[in-house]
């Protein structure tokens, strides 16, 4: 992310957000800023409170405690102003099946000002629905309905696009395309994308940062570094040696792991450490990078607990 | 923000893009036109032929049931349909308050009821005109109304009944999000109303004067100044108005406060 984006006000701020239904607390004291201009992931196991949080963000359900501000407007007190900045798909994009895709988009275009015919065509082209837009929605496949769902969310050029499990039911090619146009949207129109998922691998490929939620509580917020195509959260190097304890004593850093010595070090330091180990009479069989994937971290943080 | 008229336009599109709506209007037109024709072709002598307004009133008395039923169907689906299709989630996240969205739905339902009324009158009157006999004796004046005036006052009273039944269906559909229940309950009240009036006779039970059923049919006032349980027309209208406001208040409250998690 550029420095400029980091200086901007967060597009959405969740402040002590709590949702209770009866005695059950679905979301508990969730405080989170969604930085402008990012693709921000919202990760958690099923039942963690992702959809509940999203429903509160778009005003579909009431907030028990706390507040959500979108572009400075409280969703509680200034719903219309706040939600005007939001485009969303909550769960599956359900459309009027007896209308064509185009007629569906016209429905939503009429509900905001400034969506021209040209804008509708532009959005249809972006999601790649082509001529099928003039067919009835009941003839659409799930993938096409997803595209139409994204199209309706983008019509009014929202500052914040909220997608709830958008890759559900998409084939690998569909997922790839979705990822590509979310990236393009983020880059070209400066739209902030807030996307929830329970699939880690997907988040790794798509997001700049992720917030991890479990049992209705925020567990952690992580920046993801993009290294080529793979995402490496923290890098460690593992020295496979004949006597790991002696190596640890010699170097005075790192930790014992997998029968070897794991250290955090730069490329130059690795060569240096290797030289010291060899000079100290320790046999080094191999040196390789131990990248802890987001998945490891996720499981570590959520402790592999069941749905509570 | 867009225009409120756009919201009503949206609701109209949802009603008239469905084949069902046109089938209902077609059946209504056919039934309205059929009755006068049937009577005309089944009468064996000139003396049993009906005059224009007599024929029209008979057509209305049968076809108006359909008018009420079809309007109730449209009203019941207006809110409940959005929930069962799942489209409510996309509808409520627009920069419009829920009250305005509900109002646009209600207006579109009332517009449909007026359209179906126009269809009924146009086809019923047209058919009555073609299949009546000027030879038949003119209807006498009723309580100072000419036959034409009486026919239209009768229609107005029936519309008041439809209006309240529709409000009830709209409420049930918004509160329970089930169009089947809303249609069923409205139909039940439509047909069981007269039985209720018989059992809870307002002449015998003072409290029955405050029931909705007692006052839904205002046609009695066309021929008499005293209504059920010696009520006046003003009293009947006041009772109906209170129920109407109550129905709409419940509808608005529930729809605005509801957590949409389906």
TrEMBL record, chain A:
One of its GO terms (molecular function) is ATP binding. InterPro entries: AAA+_ATPase, ABC_transporter-like_ATP-bd, ABC_transporter-like_CS, P-loop_NTPase. Keywords: ATP-binding, Nucleotide-binding, Transport. Residues 12-240 form the ABC transporter domain. The keyword Transport applies. The keyword DNA-binding does not apply. Belongs to the ABC transporter superfamily. This is ABC transporter ATP-binding protein YhcH. The gene is yhcH.
TrEMBL record, chain B:
GO terms for cellular component: plasma membrane. The chain crosses the membrane at residues 21-42, 62-85, 106-131, 151-172, 179-200, 233-255. The keyword Transmembrane helix applies. Keywords: Membrane, Transmembrane, Transmembrane helix. GO terms for molecular function: ABC-type transporter activity. The lineage of its organism: Bacteria, Bacillati, Bacillota, Bacilli, Bacillales. This is ABC transporter permease. It comes from the Bacteria. Pfam families: ABC2_membrane_4.
């Amino acid at each position: 992310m550029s420095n400029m984006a980091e200086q901007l006000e967060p597009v959405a701020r969740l402040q002590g957000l709590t949702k209770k239904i009866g005695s059950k607390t679905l979301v508990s004291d969730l405080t989170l800023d969604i930085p402008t201009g990012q693709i921000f992931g919202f990760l958690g196991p099923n039942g963690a409170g992702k959809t509940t949080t999203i429903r509160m963000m778009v005003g579909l359900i009431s907030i028990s405690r706390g507040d959500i501000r979108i572009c400075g407007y409280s969703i509680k007190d200034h719903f219309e102003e706040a939600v005007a900045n939001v485009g969303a798909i909550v769960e599956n994009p359900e459309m009027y099946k007896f209308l064509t895709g185009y007629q569906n988009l016209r429905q939503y275009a009429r509900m905001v000002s400034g969506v021209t015919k040209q804008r509708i065509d532009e959005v249809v082209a972006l999601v790649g629905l082509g001529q099928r837009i003039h067919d009835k929605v009941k003839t659409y496949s799930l993938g096409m309905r997803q595209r139409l769902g994204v199209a309706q969310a983008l019509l009014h050029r929202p500052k914040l696009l909220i997608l709830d499990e958008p890759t559900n039911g998409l084939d690998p090619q569909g997922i790839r395309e979705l990822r590509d146009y979310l990236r393009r949207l983020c880059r070209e129109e400066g739209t902030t994308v807030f996307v929830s998922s329970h699939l880690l691998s997907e988040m790794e490929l798509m997001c700049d940062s992720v917030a991890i939620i479990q049992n209705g509580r925020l567990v952690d917020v992580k920046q993801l570094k993009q290294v080529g195509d793979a995402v490496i959260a923290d890098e460690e190097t593992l020295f496979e040696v004949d006597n790991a304890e002696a190596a640890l004593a010699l170097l005075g850093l790192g930790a014992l792991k997998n029968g070897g010595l794991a250290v955090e070090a730069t490329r130059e330091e690795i060569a240096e450490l290797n030289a010291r180990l060899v000079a100290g009479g320790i046999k080094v069989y191999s040196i390789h990078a131990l990248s802890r994937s987001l998945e490891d971290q996720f499981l570590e943080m959520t402790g592999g607990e069941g749905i509570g | 923000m867009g225009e409120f008229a756009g919201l009503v336009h949206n609701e109209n599109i949802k009603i008239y893009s469905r084949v069902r709506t046109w089938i209902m209007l077609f059946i209504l037109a056919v039934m309205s036109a059929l009755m006068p024709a049937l009577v005309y072709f089944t009468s064996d002598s000139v003396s049993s032929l009906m005059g224009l307004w007599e024929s029209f009133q008979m057509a209305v008395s049968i076809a108006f049931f359909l008018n009420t039923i079809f309007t109730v169907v449209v009203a019941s689906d207006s809110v409940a349909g959005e929930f069962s299709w799942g489209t409510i989630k996309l509808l409520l996240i627009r920069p419009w308050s829920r009250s305005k969205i509900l109002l646009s739905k209600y207006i579109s339902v009332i517009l449909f009821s007026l359209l179906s009324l126009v269809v009924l009158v146009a086809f019923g009157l047209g058919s009555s005109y073609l299949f009546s006999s000027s030879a038949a004796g003119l209807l006498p004046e009723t309580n100072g109304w000419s036959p034409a005036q009486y026919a239209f006052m009768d229609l107005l009273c029936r519309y008041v009944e439809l209006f309240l039944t529709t409000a009830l269906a709209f409420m049930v559909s918004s509160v329970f999000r089930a169009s089947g229940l809303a249609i069923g309950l409205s139909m039940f009240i439509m047909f069981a109303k007269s039985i209720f009036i018989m059992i809870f006779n307002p002449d015998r039970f003072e409290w029955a004067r405050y029931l909705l059923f007692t006052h839904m049919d205002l046609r009695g006032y066309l021929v008499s100044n005293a209504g059920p349980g010696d009520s006046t027309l003003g009293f009947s209208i006041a009772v109906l108005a209170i129920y109407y406001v109550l129905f709409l208040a419940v509808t608005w409250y529930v729809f605005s406060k509801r957590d949409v998690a389906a």
